[in-house]
């Protein structure tokens, strides 16, 4: 499965707001831990190793 690179979230602003709310009241360390757990949860959902490695490379570039 190739990585989807076009916008693919129905309400990106709403999701971004929810992401910010999830971090409210957390310390920097707690926020980093939340992000790490979120990455692992979403990686498990995607499940396709090739797409995940492509995402890692893309994230590293930008």
Runs with pLDDT <50, length 5+? none
Rounded to an integer in angstroms, the radius of gyration calculated over CA atoms is 13 Å
Estimate the helix proportion, in percent.
Answer: over 70%
The profile of the biggest β sheet is: none
How far is the N terminus from the C terminus? 22 Å
CA-based shape: globular
Q: List SSEs in N-to-C order.
A: HHH
Number of strands: 0
Average pLDDT, rounded to a whole number, is 96
Number of helices: 3
Q: Approximately how much beta-strand content do the residues carry? A: under 5%
Structural class estimated from helices and strands: mainly alpha
Structure description:
This protein is an all-alpha fold. The chain has a domain at 27-62. Helix content is 71%, strand content 0%. The protein is built from three helices and no strands. The chain has helices at residues 12-23, 28-46, 49-61. The two termini are 22 Å apart. InterPro entries: DUF2783.
């Amino acid at each position: 499965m190739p990585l989807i690179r076009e916008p693919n979230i129905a309400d990106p602003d709403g999701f971004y707001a929810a992401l910010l709310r999830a971090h409210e009241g957390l310390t920097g360390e707690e926020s980093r831990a939340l992000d790490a757990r979120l990455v692992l949860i979403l990686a498990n959902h995607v499940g396709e190793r090739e797409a995940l490695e492509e995402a890692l490379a893309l994230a590293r570039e930008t």
